[in-house]
Design brief:
Layout (H helix, E strand, L loop, with lengths): L2 H12 L5 E5 L2 E5 L5 H11 L3 E10 L4 E9 L10 E9 L4 E3 L9 H11 L2 E3 L11 H4 L19
Parallel strand pairs: 2-5, 6-7
Antiparallel strand pairs: 1-2, 3-4, 4-5
Length: 158
């Protein structure tokens, strides 16, 4: 199966909920509206994309946007296992809550927790949304947002 065939299958399955779809650097990038993310994830799972490799967020403060992207692939389908689908959406930076995809892919568990602690995005429907690596006071600072200020320390006197 070629990447163009995979793209056609995704277009057929997701239909008009796709905002954009393109291939780049070995990943098929699919963006949908945030309110359609669970529906899109279910349809991708039905196609055979059975797990999440990771979840990431990218902060664009000048555009006042955060993009959240789930990278899905397949263990069960040998043909699909060669491809990664980046299923994502954009939200305004002040958005506090988005739907969790844990109900579709349980492998989103720890990755959604990482995005929660690093960016402050609350994934509604996640069964155990608490910081994974950071202490709660540090997580409240949203340390991976671009406007987070890192206090520099040095052992040298100026």
């Amino acid at each position: 199966m070629s990447s163009s065939e995979v793209i056609e299958k995704i277009k057929e399955a997701l239909g008009d909920i796709i905002e954009s779809i393109e291939e780049g650097k070995g990943v098929v990038h699919v963006f949908v509206p945030v309110d359609k993310i669970v529906e899109a994830a279910r349809k991708l799972k039905e196609l055979g994309f059975d797990h999440i490799k990771d979840v990431t967020a990218i902060d664009y403060p000048k555009e006042n946007v955060i993009k959240i992207i789930y990278h899905a692939s397949s263990y069960g389908n040998v043909e699909l296992s060669k491809y990664i689908v980046g299923l994502g959406y954009s939200i305004p930076r002040d958005t506090e809550r988005v739907p969790s995809l844990y109900s579709v892919w349980t492998t989103a568990d720890f990755q959604e927790r990482e995005v929660y602690e690093a960016f402050g995005i609350v994934f509604e429907g996640h069964p155990d949304l608490r910081p994974l690596l950071l202490s709660p006071p540090v997580a409240e600072l949203k340390p991976l947002r671009k406007d987070f200020v890192v206090k520099e320390e040095t052992i040298f006197r100026k």
